[in-house]
Amino acid sequence: MEVPKTPTTSRSLSPEKTAAILDGALQVFLEQGYVGTTMDRIASAAGVSKPTVYNHFCDKESLFNALIEQWVKKINWMTCPEQLLERSDEPPETVLRQLANDIFNTCIDHPEKVNFIRVVFGESGRFPELGRAFVAHMDKPMLDALTQYLSACPGLNLPDPAATATIFLGAIVFRLITHEMLHSGDILPMERDRLIDGLIHLILRV
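Structure (tokenized):
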């Protein structure tokens, strides 16, 4: 059984070693799953000592949460939607279509992202906080940003922007799960452009 150590002060932490630990942790989480991952394995994959890992992260859960935060920044899951409000002068159809395609492309261009999500889904039953951390860092910022954009977008006058944002992102996530994670595109065929056109039609009524 691993006993969490008390982390040292932030002044003693090395950004280079933090990055190495996170990179090593990602490799181990993808290969072993959350339960099979240990701080010993992470230390070995990162090329550092086990005490060094504990100096940077007090336990496996905090390391996993930090990995989620890093993942968000690495593949721009948050920065893309956060820029929506800056594009209020563009046609909503253009903005929404690019947002949808960016989300799809991010998954397709980063297959390790799909595998990482599988780890979260697979372990969230036994470790609910992993699922909650994933939603807090990944889904909520995107949903909040899209809701704010739809609320502020001139001419839309949507009765419930939050519900509309949930429908928009929910449909995209559903297609990603069925096509990319569950390999069932042939069972539920739906071309990406057709789905995006349908979503835009529902929002803009065009």
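The chain has two domains: 10-60, 75-204. The domain at 10-60 is CATH 1.10.10.60 (Arc Repressor Mutant, subunit A).
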